[in-house]
Amino acid sequence: MDRAALADFLRRHREALHPEDVGLPSGARRRAPGLRREEVAQLAAMSTDYYTRLEQRRGPQPSGQMLSSLARALRLTADERDYLYRVAGHNTPDRLSGGGHVAPALQRVLDRLDDSPALVLSTLGETLAQNRMAVALFGDRSGYTGLARSEFYRWFTDPGARAQYPEEDRARQSRAQVASLRDAYGVMGPRSRAGELVRALLAESPEFATLWEKHEVARRFEDHKTLLHPELGAIELDCQALFTEDQSQCLLVLTAPPRTEAAEKLALLSVLGTQSFAPAAPRE
Fold first, then answer.
1. Where are the alpha helices (DSSP H) in the chain?
2. pLDDT at 275
């Protein structure tokens, strides 16, 4: 771990950002350029004291998860994120597997979406970031660990993962999940995390094994879907997907046509947020 290089890198990237770059209000005039240390700590979900010690060259070696949070908070590119890992004494994450890093371009768009559910997904179906509306609609997905981070895995191993889809849509959704994983498997190879997911699901889910043998390959999202909310009931939403250039991440935005029942339900969800509607995601 190169504490001096790490501290200087964090400070310079913090000072290069403006509050509006990360979705924060600019507020009163600032004495120093860039974000405040407490703002970076807030964005990275860590204590201000911990972050301050890193900038002062006296902090402990941060974990990979902490570095991922810092890279997201500072809106680092993939190359900058890899450098951050190296000076902190870690191996760089596999870019195709995501590693929790969000492409800065997708993060900037997500920061500006407030009235529609939106989330960033990796090629393995991992939720890398959610806005407040997506948390209210889907629940907080940030606490999943291991294989359960992948929506593909949860779909075939956790019955609760299917509760938001009408029963008549679940078979189609199963095929779409397997086809998307088959696409990731083809890109990443059998020794990758995609291969690990496939091996685990073949052992745990007869349904997955049957569908896997069909060799369907596609990475797609339904243009229109119905989701079941525990309090609001069925919500019919349109889906738009924005991919990074390398297709490794996707920003999924769900909207409803104006003056429809679904639009009214989204407005209600926006007002009430997670206070009473969205169930807490299980931890595995």
1. 3-16, 37-43, 48-55, 64-73, 78-87, 104-111, 132-138, 151-157, 170-188, 193-204, 206-212, 261-272
2. 55
